[in-house]
Amino acid sequence: MTAPFGVRRLAAAFPKASLLATGYSFSMTFGIALIAPLENPEPHFEPAQSPSVETPPGCAPLHHREPWTLPDLLFFAIFFFGMLFLTFFLGLAAYAALKPLMGWQSSTQSLGQNTFFLLGVQFAFYILLFAYIYFLVVYHYRLRFWKGIQWGHLTGKAIMQYVAGGVVVAITVQLIPVFLPDKRQFPLEHLFSSPGSSYAVAVFAVIVAPFMEELIFRGVLFSIFETRVGLRFAIVVTAILFAAMHVPEYQGAWDHLFMIFLVGLVFSLVRGLTKRLAPCVVLHVTYNGCLMVGLFVVTSHFRIMQNLLVR
Questions:
Q1: Which of 1, 12, 67, 161 is surrounded by the most beta carbons within 10 Å?
Q2: Low pLDDT (below 50) residues in the chain
Q3: Could you tell me the CA-to-CA distances from 151 to 114, 144, 178, 281 in Å, in that order?
Q4: What is the Cα–Cα distance from 219 to 149, expressed in whole angstroms?
Q5: Exposed/middle/buried for 40, CB within 10 Å: 0-12, 13-18, 19+?
């Protein structure tokens, strides 16, 4: 039977695990991006006449600041990793303080594998990161948020086309044969410790993660790399960074990492071709949704998840 293999590919296809380990892998790839040689001169932006610059409602007009610069990348990286570690340790401190009052039984040492704690910390981290990006675009660049991140309007027909594309990507991923060294167990599997935790991961993977991951990779990072280096560089590097973020979750599972890279490459190609972020989010939501529906079906509503994953 091929069900166990299919389940493992489904579970591994959407990555959500160790926050601290993710930070270490991301710091290396950010360093590579920061020292990459510049091929094109920085574009010139007209201060007041630029049609893309608008003063947000309630904001006093200020001098225009050039968007998506390398210093912005540096400050974004510092904020990203600083908040990544800070939210985790603040979560530990909050749990330790509330534990006697709430009667919680889990020790602080075990929280690193507690699905609900990790998802809660990651959600808090995403809120802070979104606030930083919003401030950067609206109050620093003086752009309307959705226009600044190049969201783009999608018609109903276009949405359905990208939904179909997400389904195709999800099915294709399941059909890709294993041809690289792989492992039978990953840290990611600890998140599926119970049906309740599996439902929580599924909701997070479909509702929260796609938008924030696309905002980070195909929004902020793609815009900086495309503006400062070039389109091809932006497509390839954001796909590499997307896969590199998940290395700690699949140590030695190179087949799964290559699959994640291919999915990220598809999203980056769509971003480069359409010049919009919305199609990437629709693709990502659909892709994760298909994987979670498949996992839900083959594991009898997440009730036999662990038995299938460890085979």
A1: 12
A2: 1-6, 11-52, 60, 310-311
A3: 34, 11, 35, 9
A4: 6
A5: exposed
How many angstroms separate the CA atoms of 53 and 46, rounded? 9
CA 34 from chain centre, in angstroms, equals: 20
Distance of CA 2 to the CA centre of its chain: 29
Q: Rounded to two decimals, what is the model's pTM?
A: 0.79
Model confidence over 47-85: pLDDT tens digits? 434 444 555 555 545 556 889 999 999 999 999 999 999
In angstroms, the CA 42 to CA 115 distance is 44
Per-domain boundaries in the chain: 9-36+65-309
Closest-CA residue to 189 (of 119, 254, 264, 250): 250
For the four alpha carbons of 101, 197, 207 and 235, in that order, the dihedral sign comes to: positive
